[in-house]
Amino acid sequence: MNIFRLAGDMTHLMSVLVLLLKIHTIKSCAGISLKTQELYALVFATRYLDIFTDFISVYNTIMKLIFLGSSFSIVWYMRRHKLVRRSYDKEQDTFRHFFLVLPCLLLALVMNEKFTFKEVMWAFSLYLEAVAILPQLVLLQRTKNIDNLTGQYVFLLGAYRAFYIFNWIYRYFTEPHYVHWITWISGLVQTLLYADFFYYYFNSWKNNVKLHLPA
Amino acid sequence: SPGIILHDEL
């Protein structure tokens, strides 16, 4: 474990807590894409298949349980909770996430570290995580006013993968044989997808104006 | 076991 990876995991945890806080306290999911939340639940479900078979560390297991629990409970809140579901913007959140899942699955079948069920699922989860934010970014473009919690949520979600990139660089130089092209490329693509959001988020913060993305 | 690749990151 290195400081970059710890910072990345904590930032990722913060993003989830910010979202749960928003949904649980103000009983609203306005501006949040259910499609993205469903994709994240699928990402964790396919990435943490080894949670009970390969023990890495207590930290690793606890964090996996937190990410699995939070992502599925957010989907449950947005689909089932009578108050929260009313604030879900079904008409605007129309990204066909099936068109993200299928290419990722096909790519995982072709590009993986080993052609085993677990490794294909692991590669699938990495490709899917890279694009899972797209429905949320599309929704942000459509809903003009972005409330602070939603902006913070997306910012933290993008920042966590940026920290991970520093972690991969650090591990590449400090650990022999640490080479994971699949992780590195999908992680880089994922971070780049946030680039324009970061640009507008930083500018809104610098000029102290409300965050809004150009149409 | 050598067969499996251990992914230690979240």
Describe this protein with a few key phrases.
heterodimer, A: 215 residues, mainly alpha, B: 10 residues, little secondary structure, 0% strand
Tell me what you see in this structure.
The complex is a heterodimer of chains A (215) and B (10). Chain A is mainly α and 215 residues long. Helix content of chain A is 72%, strand content 0%. Chain A has one domain (3-202). Chain A has ten helices and no strands. The longest helix of chain A is centred in the C-terminal third of the chain and has 27 residues, at 148-174. Chain B has 10 residues and is largely without helices or strands. Helix content of chain B is 0%, strand content 0%. Chain B has no helix or strand. The termini of chain B are far apart. The model of chain B has no long low-confidence stretch (mean pLDDT 78). At the A-B interface, helix 1, helix 3 and helix 6 of A face loops of B.
Outline:
Chain A is an all-alpha fold and 215 residues long. Chain A has ten helices and no strands.
Task: Write the SSE topology.
The complex is a heterodimer of chains A (215) and B (10).
Chain A: H1 3-25, H2 34-47, H3 58-80, H4 82-86, H5 98-110, H6 117-131, H7 134-142, H8 148-174, H9 181-193, H10 195-206
Helix pairs in contact in A: 1-3, 1-8, 2-3, 2-6, 5-6, 6-9, 8-9
Chain B: no helix or strand
Keywords (chain A): Endoplasmic reticulum, ER-Golgi transport, Membrane, Protein transport, Receptor, Transmembrane, Transmembrane helix, Transport
GO molecular function, one term (chain A): ER retention sequence binding
GO biological process, one term (chain A): protein retention in ER lumen
